[in-house]
Structures are given as structure tokens and as C-alpha cells.
Design goal:
Blueprint lengths: L7 E6 L4 E8 L2 E9 L1 H5 L6 H19 L11 E7 L3 H18 L3 E5 H6 L22 E6 L4 E8 L2 E7 L5 H11 L6 H9 L23 H15 L5 H31 L3 E5 L6 H13 L4 E2 L12 H12 L19
Parallel strand pairs: 1-4, 4-5, 6-9, 9-10
Antiparallel strand pairs: 1-2, 2-3, 6-7, 7-8
Helix pairs in contact: 2-3, 5-6, 5-7, 5-8, 6-8, 8-9
The structure holds 5'-O-[(R)-(carboxyoxy)(hydroxy)phosphoryl]adenosine (KG4) and zinc ion.
The site of zinc ion has 5 residues, from helix 4.
């Protein structure tokens, strides 16, 4: 693999409800601009694909402009990168159309990136000074990745960068989606993850809830049964509640415990089966402190190092992780060959 020194990439991600562009040099993030649509989708209790498209269209130009503010001449850019999937089709289309226009206008090559590979490599991102989780430690393969977001819950084995094996994934709802839905049941607002985890701090996990797929031998996840169990439990408790605030906190703590245990059970199973040398975490749900604590506890016992991105903006959707991923792809010569055929792949997987 040829090392591409000082390689500068403008990357774009419009996979869901964040319009994002970043400027990276190799694996260093020089700028990362994220325009969140949360306020727009909040009213609907979830992401509305056509509203997402409209907002991406409105904001993409400005977000890119801000991301490349420090670039004095376009000729200093080496390539453009864009997320092609997985994600919402109408949202992905905006980024792809934009990157095609810019590639033609500026005469630059395009690198198409898998959004989940971006999350998987997000720990490799360094700041502009070259500091990051992997700046002092070398990456040692195989690396096991646990990716937990609003759209995905996956265990992925990284044999080397660019060579992955999907070990397991959710069969229904994603973990973040379950947090969001439980928050909705309790009328807590959107997105639910941060609210539920904050309330859980004030409660005790006193309600018994199922740990989905605990005894299944595979490495898949399931959250829809837990979600339904929550719905019944809330209904059952409704008439018995004396202190609503305390009930909310206790219920959030109970749900969080069950959801995290589901992840931990399968993480342990995957470690036992594949013997990884390092663990990486990625996706919006890793903002959850209890999840991180539990993962660290498991890995400490096994003397397994755990890496998470050093900035919260690298957990949730962002183009910086896409730029880092694209740099590795560029070094493998993985560029888009026929730009006119470049299209979104909403169900792209590893
Ligand atoms: O990765 P992300 O930004 O978007 C997707 O690609 O899906 O993840 C967003 C998800 C949402 O479901 C949100 O509720 C969840 O991450 N989330 C959390 C926390 N912060 C965000 N879930 C649990 N605990 C948190 N602290
Ligand atoms: Zn994501």
C-alpha cells in the first residue's frame, strides 16, 4: 500500500439528519462542520426523509464552504469523498449529486464511502495536531468493532483496514432506535437516547425487562421484543404510579440496563469466539456513559484495550470519519471509476 502523504480530502455525509462536510489531511481532521436537523424532525418524533432532503439541499453549500474555509486554492485539494450508504435514499442523493457537481467543476477524483465503515474507523481520526486514540498505540488486528447508532447495531471484525467481516447485527430495531421509542412512550421527546440516559442516572433498575437474544448462540441482536415489553410494563404500571418523576427515572434505568446488557452479552461472545487484540466503539449510542463503563469493565478483565473517538462529534454522524476512511481507500487505489454511474446504496452493508 502506497502511503499518500499530506493527502487532502473534502468529505460529505448526508446519510440521515445531519448535513456534514469535513476537511482532512491523511487521518487528521482540520475542520468538521455539522448542521443538525434535530429541531425540524423533533416535532414528528423521528426523521422524515423528505424533510431531511430539503434541509440537506438548503444547507449543503454553506456547510462545504465553511469546511474548506482554510483552503486557499482548490488545487490544494486531492480528492472528494462522499457517503453512498447505508442511509435514507432521499438524503444520500443530495450529497452524491453535490459531490458529482464539484468533481466535474474542480476536476477531482471521488472516493465513495460506506457510512458504517466510517463509524468503525472513527477512533482512528486525529485532531489537527495529530493526536487521537491511536496516536500512541499501534492498531493491532484483528480489531473487534461494536457499532451502535440510531440505524444500526453491529459487531464487525476488522482483519485489516478495508477487510471486514460482519459478525452480527440487529434483526429488527437498532439500539438507538429503541432508546428513541422508549422515550416516546414516556413522552420524553426526541432524540430519546440522551434524555433516557440522563433520567436513568436518577433512578434504580427496579423493573424487570427481558434481555433479548441472551441465550442465542449467534452474534445478532434484537430490540423489538424489549420495546414491546416496555410498552406493556408502562401500561401495567400506569395505574400504580405514585411518584411519576421517580417512575420515569426508574423505568429509564431499567430499560437502559436491559439494552446495555444485550450489547454486552454479544460483545463477550464475539470476544470469546474471535479473540480480537483491540476493541473499537462507534456510533451515536456510545455517548452513553453506562455503556462505555460496562464495555471497559469487560475488556479490563481480559486486558483488552478499548478505543473510542476523542470527540463527541465523531460519535454521531459526521463527515470527518468519512474523510479518514477515504484516505485509507485512496491508498488502496479505491476511487470511483465511472462517476456517472455513482449512485446511493441505502442498504449497503459490510
Ligand atoms: O450515530 P447516530 O448519530 O445516528 C445514526 O447514524 O443513526 O446515532 C443517533 C442515536 C439516536 O438514536 C440517539 O437517541 C442515540 O444515538 N443516543 C444515545 C445517547 N446519545 C445519543 N443513546 C443512548 N444514550 C445516549 N447518551
Ligand atoms: Zn451513523
Amino acid at each position: 500500500m502506497k502511503i499518500l502523504k499530506d493527502y487532502r480530502i473534502l468529505s460529505i455525509d448526508t446519510s440521515c439528519d445531519e448535513t456534514s462536510a469535513a476537511l482532512t489531511v491523511e487521518d487528521r481532521v482540520l475542520s468538521s462542520i455539522i448542521s443538525s436537523q434535530i429541531e425540524i424532525h423533533k416535532k414528528w418524533g423521528g426523521v422524515v426523509p423528505n424533510l431531511a432532503r430539503r434541509e440537506h439541499e438548503k444547507n449543503i453549500g454553506l456547510v462545504i464552504k465553511q469546511a474548506i474555509k482554510s483552503v486557499s486554492q482548490i488545487s490544494n485539494l486531492d480528492a472528494l469523498a462522499v457517503t453512498i450508504g447505508p442511509g435514507l435514499a432521499p438524503a444520500l442523493e443530495v450529497g452524491i449529486r453535490k459531490v458529482k457537481d464539484l468533481a466535474k467543476k474542480w476536476g477531482k477524483p471521488i472516493i465513495s464511502v460506506n457510512h458504517m465503515e466510517g463509524h468503525l474507523l472513527s477512533s482512528l481520526a486525529k485532531n489537527s495536531q495529530g493526536t487521537g486514540p491511536f496516536s500512541k498505540t499501534k492498531i493491532k488486528f484483528p480489531v473487534l468493532g461494536l457499532l451502535v447508532s440510531g440505524g444500526h447495531t453491529q459487531l464487525v471484525l476488522m482483519k485489516k483496514i478495508g477487510k471486514y467481516q460482519l459478525l452480527g447485527e440487529t434483526l429488527d430495531d437498532a439500539c438507538g432506535e429503541a432508546f428513541d421509542k422508549v422515550a416516546k412512550m414516556l413522552d420524553l421527546g426526541y432524540p430519546g437516547g440522551p434524555i433516557v440516559s440522563q433520567l436513568a442516572l436518577k433512578g434504580k433498575p427496579k423493573y424487570e425487562l427481558p434481555i433479548p437474544m441472551k441465550y442465542s448462540s449467534d452474534l445478532n441482536f434484537s430490540f423489538s421484543g424489549l420495546k414491546t415489553a416496555c410498552l406493556y410494563k408502562i401500561k401495567e404500571q400506569r395505574t400504580k404510579i405514585k411518584d411519576k418523576k421517580q417512575f420515569m427515572a426508574d423505568f429509564c434505568a431499567s430499560f437502559e440496563k436491559a439494552a446495555i446488557e444485550t450489547l454486552i452479552v454479544k460483545l463477550k461472545k464475539a470476544i470469546g469466539k474471535y479473540n480480537p487484540k483491540q476493541i473499537v466503539l462507534g456510533g451515536g449510542v456510545i455517548a452513553n456513559l453506562k455503556l462505555r463503563k460496562e464495555v471497559r469493565k469487560v475488556c479490563k478483565k481480559l486486558s483488552l484495550p478499548v478505543f473510542i473517538p476523542n470527540r463527541k462529534t465523531l460519535f454521531t454522524d459526521n463527515a470527518a470519519m468519512i474523510g479518514v476512511c477515504a484516505w485509507y481507500q485512496a491508498q488502496r487505489g479505491d476511487f470511483v471509476k465511472n462517476i456517472s454511474k455513482l449512485d446511493r446504496l441505502p442498504n449497503l452493508n459490510f
